[in-house]
Amino acid sequence: MGQVDPSFIQAVEHRPKLTVIEAQGIPLIDLSTSNIDTLVAEIGGACETWGFFQVINHGVPLERRLKMETAARKFFGQEREEKMKVRRGGVNPLGYYDTEHTKNVRDWKEVLDLTMEDPTLMWASHEPDDQELTEWFNLWPENVPEIREASEEYFEEMQKLGYKLLELISLSLGLPANRLNGYFKDQTSFVRLNHYPPCPVPDLALGVGRHKDAISLTILAQDDVGGLEVKRKTDGEWIRVKPTPNAYIINVGDIIQVWSNDKYESVEHRVMVNSERERFSIPFFMSPSHYTMVKPLEELTNDQNPAKYRPYSWGKFLATRKRSNFMKLNVENIQIYHFRI
């Protein structure tokens, strides 16, 4: 095993298989389709069957994505000492970090988190009764000044695409197109720049361990190296999502699972690493305001299909997650099933 820190090593039952099953059937959806009914049906089918899909002709200019990727490569190419100048702290969980844990096992990656609303208004504490507010703000690296402009332009594009997808998902649930938009007035959405260095033990460690996304919707740009794996709902098999040039990978998050009262499910996924090539990815996590109370939408519940979740505060949920993502806990991290009725 050489010099690999034991904190990276997955339990035997969660170690990656080095034989890869390529995804067959993860939908590839063309957003330029002129027939809105067809598009809505495709989105709904993908959300229900997979919880994951890819989109092409999505309207995001390639040059803006490339500008973001180039800035990310430049940032992560610096010495660790330089990157640590923008490291996250206990009060402000934005910035650089390289010791994140998923399910209490350290991830083989380093990240830079950047919030869209700068500053982002947030609860100061995870304690339910504490009503004090704080601000999360971006830490911009001095030696990569171009990252700021690249991020601001990219946020603009992610916002547009995010709303377009939310509206299609709303329509697929039989709701008005703008039904979900109001939850994002003071949103807590953020971009994460991920760098996965080559790993000497790709059979023992993971770039990100198995998890579900707590947010509403994830829009992922990945490079040509690949590594994202999705747990197929039909048989629990881990399936590799092959990179499609200039496509975005979309996945339903926990909040949409709750809003839809389990019609759409947030699916477990993970990231493999390899011993030869570094990998970069850029997920945009679309998240509502800190004051949003998340609960099944009234229009989707009735006597035959009662609400399956108690309401929970998104901001308090997020504060709890942020606290525990960066320290090893003796208990399981907060999950939506803790609010299941």
Features of the shown structure:
single chain; 18 strands; globular; 4-stranded antiparallel beta sheet; 341 residues; 6 helices; alpha+beta
What does this structure look like?
By secondary structure, the chain is an alpha+beta fold. 23% of the residues lie in helices and 21% in strands. It has an eight-stranded mixed sheet with strand order 1-2-14-11-16-9-6-3. Strands 10-15-12-13 form a four-stranded antiparallel sheet, with no helix packed on it. A two-stranded antiparallel ribbon has the order 4-5. A hairpin with a 6-residue loop joins strand 12 and strand 13. Helix 1 (36-49) packs across helix 4 and helix 2 packs across helix 4 (146-172). It is globular, with a radius of gyration of 19 Å.
List the helices and strands and how they pair.
Elements: E1 28-30, H1 36-49, E2 52-56, H2 62-76, H3 80-83, E3 95-97, E4 101-102, E5 105-106, E6 110-115, E7 120-123, E8 133-136, H4 146-172, E9 190-196, E10 208-211, E11 217-222, E12 228-231, E13 238-240, E14 248-252, H5 254-259, E15 269-271, E16 279-286, E17 293-294, E18 312-313, H6 314-325
Parallel strand pairs: 1-2
Antiparallel strand pairs: 2-14, 3-6, 4-5, 6-9, 7-8, 9-16, 10-15, 11-14, 11-16, 12-13, 12-15, 17-18
Helix pairs in contact: 1-4, 2-4
